[in-house]
Write the structure tokens for this entry.
Amino acid sequence: MTHEEVLRVVAELDIPVIRLWFTDILGQIRGFAITPRELPEALQSGLGFDGSSVEGFARIHESDLMAFPDPDTFKILPDEVEGSKAAVMFCDLKTPEGEPYEGDTRYVLRRNLEKIAKEGYTFYVGPELEYFYLKDEYSAQVLDEVGYFDASITGPGSILRKKTVKALEDIGIHVEYAHHEVAPSQHEIDLRYDKALVMADKVIIYRFLVKEIARQNDYYATFMPKPMFGVNGSGMHTHQSIFKGDRNMFFAAENEYHLSDFAKSYIAGILTHIREITAVLNQWVNSYKRLVPGYEAPVYISWGQKNRSALVRVPRYRIGKEKSTRIELRSPDPVCNPYLAFSVMLAAGMKGVREKYILPAPVEENIYEMTPVDRLDKNIETLPGDLYEALQELEKSQLMRETLGDHVFDKFIANKRIEWENYRGIVSHYELDKYLPIL
């Protein structure tokens, strides 16, 4: 949409509130609301705000920032979410001098996409975000005890999921699948693949709608990777492909698995650099409670086609569907910052392409059932075991510093080190239950 089209729609529909959104360094929504009277100035010149209190943004002596609404992201929020008519736009953040703000994670993704666009490439992603419906935010009380692909339509979780799908479709976000997941009260809504920047915006809206619709119905939705022990955690399996014009660069009819040499090097790049990008894909202490053997989450660095214990899976090629050839990275979780997550996946994969990394042999056996000796024989390494280890890998990565930029790279690591130190000093219920009676 153009600026004029946005102004016309707001006037014709008599929309009283326009919400301007951006995300902090952790991917949490931040923003403010304006009236239609302020909209022309916002679109033309941007609106100033104090960035010093936003997580990972400017220091207090350089806090002035400008938010420029992106008219291409204009959407009218569903009435049942807002309670009245309201629109939303994502913002690009700039300095008062008009330069892109280096702490804007949306800019980080845009910059990385512009880099490959110079070579004629377009990056497409299709994330699958899982989440739980709970009775409230204070305990992990589930709404059902059913499992994968349960077909009931009257349970509270099914009704909430249906309302969310309708809200997404109403604002032009296309849903491919919606279903119950493996764990009790766990659900998934899959969005149709799109260009990476557009999809990152959609992920933010998707998470917002899931949580708001649950809250308005007196329930709670959480994307927390592992909210309860003994069941599967929630992931964000991310399907990826790169096109040049209408050509899918991942497809080759004559090659094994129908993967081009481009795709093989891209996968090799992901596998080679996965340990240094894991802190971005799995950015919370709780993320590593999901990445343990036995609950379908990937732990071991490998790839395969039929193997769902592998880190990277290549969905099987369907005749006549060359454009659907893609890879699926299974380690990210749904509370990452999507702008940063898509950036680091792309950077790792394209590093492999540019330097022609050699893809190791696939692993089709169940890796969880292998002995340590078997995994050693096959050179299968593991993902970082906790946030601290992941941060150590990230901190020494020159590729990630270049990808994220100095500001985001340094601020992200500093923020996560604080989280780790706070977590490290907590005395957990496990320790009290196990050690207090005997020590």
Summary: The radius of gyration is 22 Å. The mean pLDDT is 91.
